Amino acid sequence: MRTLKYNLSNSRNCFGQLKIVALLFTFLSFWGCTDLSESTYTFINPEDYYKTEADLENGLNSVYADFRTFTTNYKTLVALELLTEHAMPAHSSKDGVKNFNCWQGVNQSTTYNIQIWDSGYELINRCNVVLGRGDKVDMDEKKRNQIYGQARFFRAYTMFVLLRLYGGLAIPESYTSGLNGLEIPRKTASETYDYIVEDLKYCINNLPTRSQWGNGALYKASRGAAQALLGDVYLTRGCMDNYNTTYFQEAKKYLGDVISSGEYELLPDYKSMWYWFVEEAAKNTKESLLEIQFGATQVSALHCYFGINTKDESLGANMYARAGIAHKSYFSFQDEDVRKQCFLTEFTITGTTTRRYFEAEYKGFSGKGDGKWTSTSPGCVKFYDRTKSAYDTGGSKANYIAMRYSDVLLNYAEVENYLNGPTTDAYSKLEAVHNRSNSKPIATGLSKEAFDDAIFQERVWEFIGEGHLYYDELRTDRLGKNVYEYKMYMYENGYYNCQKLQFVPQRTFLWKIPQTSLDSNPALVQNPENVSDPRYPLN
């Protein structure tokens, strides 16, 4: 394992505005399958604290808690959806929803500063604290390696997110005393990939499988999650490196290991993954590889930001909206597709016979027509909790599924197609996902290019609204063309809050590093100016 030495008297690290670990360290109780409660202790000397296995477990629990914050930040999910053609801004103009939707201000370090860089490095920091302090704890070596494996998994996951948004990262190997020695330059993208790969290979060698963790710990990072993430890393790296078949072979290997493990399976009914339909039975199923836990004392607010601007007992917690599914994407679902039922298009006001329903002809303008729909588009029930307790408290108990088995199958089909074309093996993985929800069969005899399009379309139907499609479109070089065609159409046809497109992203698009982090670390170099794709003129 890489050597990490720390002096936690640091009040900020080179990435700006991390919490003061030595003076205000958050210890968290055991993260069960539904709840995570926390207690705060102050003025703790880390040299005195990390002495027992329980101390190290508490440090790891703080990693899990911060990972929940990082992955379920509504601003990140809203932005990632609005930057694709699959979402449109809702009636609120808060949080820059109109700017994200039209790609405005892409070369300003403030426009896309939604705390993901800072919060990502804070999470990396927590992982490094566990890794840097664990060697001093007297404990069973296998258990120590499991704790390290979990910390390294979350570090790798976080760095993979940041790498795809910002490019090569500055990688902290140690703490320094005070503000000295904070000049850490960025690694190249290739070096950052290598670092992530090394972390995940360690995880694969040291983490238990899902079944080995057992029912009381299904939320924990597992060997299968590490294999799936490494497969995704290699798939992305191969695509971004001119479709490098060496990386594709590695992707196929690790994705195949997940499939052959027998640890995961597609649920027979797509709807059974979502709390709206089956409540607690939706949590931590065999389709889930990694799931962010929410419950009665730790509730999610994602339902608010992908809601329909209303409050009614039949809908559970109070709703408002920042983004909604784009109309074209909603109508791309065939009527027989079960996944179309995951969007709220009508309800009856409790205690009345008054029905509210979505009317697409009004192009997102609410309160028009007989239905008087309260939002720009259908609501995404993937985040909803319609129980009476949610209505009373205002918070959703629905988990957020960060990784699931259908993603593994579609990634495998994609990489197999890159390597060998639409083989029987590739078809079987795509059909498993498709046939689970849609009775209309996939066309046979597709060309390599047409099969790749079919996989991408399946990803849209499977993952829309979950914050994944931005990465898929950027990786496969679809983002610019799709954004240009549909966002120009929405603006020209007068859809609500859809402004004129300001920029067309190329595959090389990178977000700007926040200025505060540049100020904190003089060795950081800002990303170059992004150039709008010249193939799609905006005049």
Provide a concise account of the structure shown.
The chain is mostly helical. The protein is 43% helix and 7% strand.
Describe the structure.
- The chain is mostly helical and 539 residues long.
- The chain has helices at 46-49, 53-71, 74-82, 97-102, 116-133, 141-166, 189-206, 210-213, 223-240, 245-260, 275-278, 302-305, 327-332, 388-393, 405-420, 424-437, 448-463, 469-475, 479-492, 515-520; strands spanning 24-28, 38-42, 87-89, 288-292, 323-325, 343-344, 346-348, 355-357, 379-380, 400-404.
- It has a domain at 272-402.
- It is built from 20 helices and ten strands.
- The strands form five sheets. It has a two-stranded antiparallel ribbon with strand order 1-2.
- Helix 2 packs parallel to helix 6 and helix 7 runs antiparallel to helix 9.
- It is globular and about 70 Å long.
Topology, element by element:
Blueprint: E1 24-28, E2 38-42, H1 46-49, H2 53-71, H3 74-82, E3 87-89, H4 97-102, H5 116-133, H6 141-166, H7 189-206, H8 210-213, H9 223-240, H10 245-260, H11 275-278, E4 288-292, H12 302-305, E5 323-325, H13 327-332, E6 343-344, E7 346-348, E8 355-357, E9 379-380, H14 388-393, E10 400-404, H15 405-420, H16 424-437, H17 448-463, H18 469-475, H19 479-492, H20 515-520
Antiparallel strand pairs: 1-2, 3-5, 4-10, 6-9, 7-8
Helix pairs in contact: 2-5, 2-6, 5-6, 6-7, 7-9, 9-10, 9-15, 10-15, 15-16, 15-17
